[in-house]
Amino acid sequence: MMDEGKKRVAVVGGGAAGLACAVMLADCCRVTVFERNDRVGKKLSATGNGQGNVTNTDMGPQHYFSDDGEKVAAILLRFGWRDTVAFLESMGGIFLPDARGRVYPAGRQASAVTDLFRKTCMEKGVCLMTGCRVELLQKSGHGFMIRHGGGEETADAVVLAAGGMAAPNFGTDGSAYALARDFGHTVTACTPSLVQLRCDPRCVRGLKGIRNASALTLLRAGREICRMEGDVLFTESGVSGDAAFRISPYVRAGDELKIDLLPSVTEERLLHAMARAGDDPLLCIVPNGLARVLARKTSGDVRALARLVKAFPLTVTGTLGFSYAQVTKGGIPLQETDASLMSRLCRGLYFAGEILNVDGECGGYNLQWAFASAAAVSRKIAGGER
Ligand SMILES: Cc1cc2nc3c(=O)[nH]c(=O)nc-3n(C[C@H](O)[C@H](O)[C@H](O)COP(=O)(O)OP(=O)(O)OC[C@H]3O[C@@H](n4cnc5c(N)ncnc54)[C@H](O)[C@@H]3O)c2cc1C
User: Fold this and answer.
1) Do the strands 238-240 and 197-199 form a parallel or antiparallel pair, or are they unpaired?
2) Are residues 44 and 169 in the same domain?
3) Which of the listed residues 172, 187, 320, 357 should we mutate to test ligand 1's pocket, taking the one with most ligand atoms within 8 A of CB?
4) CA 243 from chain center: how many Å?
5) Does residue 386 belong to any structural domain of this protein?
6) CA–centroid distance, residue 374 to ligand 1 (Å)
7) How many domains, the chain?
8) In testing the pocket of ligand 1, which one of 23, 33, 43, 245 has its CB within 8 Å of the most ligand atoms?
9) Distance from the CA of 254 to the center of ligand 1, in angstroms?
10) Which of 59, 141, 246, 256 is most buried as measured by Cβ atoms within 10 A of its Cβ?
11) What distance in angstroms lies between residue 17's CA and the mean position of ligand 1's atoms?
């Protein structure tokens, strides 16, 4: 009875952004979350290698790609990493940064973050409709009609938080863009990001499984595009690992990668050490498996070997694609939304999370966008926008 008269909000997608909206709005609205999977937060539970890297203390628009950097900056300014931590801790738990500023739940369990959302939704009376794929959204009077597998509902406002195209096994195959297109929205070209790089297999032959702390430099037509330091993991078809993921948003097929396999040591110091080592010049310098492959490529030429350690070349042929990507580059243009991420084409329709044309670097930036965009939307729906 007490809920009578409250604004009814339908949230399409029970991922990080949709659940955050639901919790943020639950005190002042009647919220229903429609989730096509049999449970909410499936992708959230898999984040950060299962540890849940929810945000980063080094926060700002410079870590994001979008069609409207100023809007991203404004939204992050109003809901930064500390707000994310405060929001999550208001539901329970402790969230702590590691030495690189990546914030995780103290228990290092992403699924526990999903549990926190699910528990809070239950406590606050949010209706979680799982196994419920939204097939059609339409304007109906002053509100909306939401058609799903099990029937139809109405709502005063709709938040489209149905994710992008990355990792379709979590329910995000890009089909939800059609719900926005029906209102006249466009979708930019989409490409996979934060994903393993595919390279000419001859370059990585014999290296599969070797992990090494490295610096990657990306070159296009001989010009340096960017450089990332971190772990590189050689795979059968290319390179993975933290540094490869972080450089993937910038990569195009045909680019060259130079991997510095010993970034903290100069070539001169390396040559000096190799001269002392005799027959096994890279012993204790790089992993043995890597040393063997490098030695084969240079047939005993010590200078060539040192150069290879400092600039191991790879030709990028592409990425492993959406199935292996963590995030979608592209989506609904921010310019089709107002400052609160409400559609400029349909009053009462809002967007939050990865469905928008915003993607962040690796390190907690995408979940931060999910939470910050949810906050922008919720503030407006709740009527608190000044
Ligand atoms: C393996 C992996 C690890 C990651 N690790 C990190 C990390 O550590 N830190 C970080 O910041 N980011 C990470 N990310 C990225 C991050 O998880 C996403 O950017 C974020 O979850 C996006 O939130 P979202 O709510 O917009 O979309 P999602 O979390 O994708 O949720 C969208 C939901 O909508 C549902 N849905 C889709 N269509 C419909 C429909 N028609 N009807 C009803 N429901 C629908 C989907 O089933 C899905 O549950 C990772 C991603 C992956 C795949």
Assistant:
1) antiparallel
2) yes
3) 172
4) 15
5) no
6) 13
7) 2
8) 43
9) 30
10) 59
11) 8
pLDDT tens digits, 247-285: 998 999 999 999 999 999 999 999 999 988 888 899 999
Query: How many CA atoms does the CB half-sphere of 367 hold within 13 Å?
Result: 32
162 and 21 together in one domain: yes
pLDDT attached to residue 155: 98
Q: Distance from the CA of 171 to the center of ligand 1, in angstroms? A: 8
pLDDT score of 384: 52
- Cβ–ligand 1 distance for 176 under 6 Å, the answer yes
Q: Closest Cα to atom 23, ligand 1: which residue?
A: 16
Name the percent of the chain in helix, strand, coil, to the closest 5. 35, 30, 35
- Are 88 and 60 contained in the same domain? yes
Whether residues 98 and 148 fall in one domain? yes
- Whether 316 contacts 276, CB under 8 Å: no
**64 and 139, same domain (yes or no):** yes
pTM (predicted TM-score): 0.93
State the pairing for strand pair 55-56/64-66: unpaired
**In percent, how much of the chain has pLDDT > 70?**
98
pLDDT of residue 2: 56
Identify the domain boundary among 297, 319, 341.
319
Determine, yes or no, domain membership for 212: yes
Q: Is residue 33 part of a domain?
A: yes
Domain for residue 264, yes or no? yes
* 44-62 pLDDT, tens digit each: 999 999 999 999 999 999 9
Task: With a cut of 60, say whether residue 64 has pLDDT above it.
Answer: yes
- The pLDDT score that the predictor gives to residue 32 is 98
Provide the residue range defining the domain that includes 33.
7-190+329-381
- Based on the fold, state whether residues 104 and 216 are members of the same structural domain: no
Return the amino acid letter for 69. Answer: G
**183 and 216 housed in the same domain:** no
Secondary structure (3-state) at 190: coil
pLDDT at residue 1 in the model: 45
Bridge partners of residue 328, in order along the sequence: 192
In this structure, what token pair is assigned to residue 247?
């450089």
